[in-house]
Write a structure and sequence with these properties.
- By secondary structure, the chain is an alpha+beta fold.
- About 45% of the residues lie in helices and about 15% in strands.
- It has four helices and four strands, in the order αβααβββα.
- The protein has a four-stranded antiparallel sheet.
- Strand 2 and strand 3 form a beta hairpin.
- Helix 1 crosses helix 3.
């Protein structure tokens, strides 16, 4: 990933930390990561960067829209049973069905 894309991704994650939510188009993530699809390694790297940003304070939840956008949400205290929000750590392992328990 080139430096300017890393900076954009970090700005996006810091927006989630500061505001509680941010959205990004799938195409932009694919360009940033120089990938053709959103594989596990993309989510692994996002999860690692999120830990850097929030220092383990809260999970990063991800929601995928029909319009090929992802919504990143500050996950502290959120129940996700029966929700379309998925913990990024679960996306990193390919286990989309796992949900975050209440904090």
């Amino acid at each position: 990933m080139i430096v300017r894309h890393m900076n954009e991704l970090m700005n996006l994650l810091e927006e989630v930390w500061e505001v509680g939510i941010a959205k990004v188009r799938q195409h932009r993530l694919l360009v940033w990561f120089e990938r053709d699809r959103m594989g596990n390694m993309v989510w692994v790297e996002i999860a690692q960067l999120w830990e850097e940003v929030c220092d383990g304070e809260a999970p990063l939840l991800i929601g995928e829209t029909e319009g090929k956008e992802y919504v990143f949400v500050w996950g502290a205290g959120l129940e996700t049973d029966n929700s379309w929000l998925i913990d990024v750590r679960n996306r990193a392992t390919g286990k989309k069905e796992l949900k975050v328990a209440a904090a």
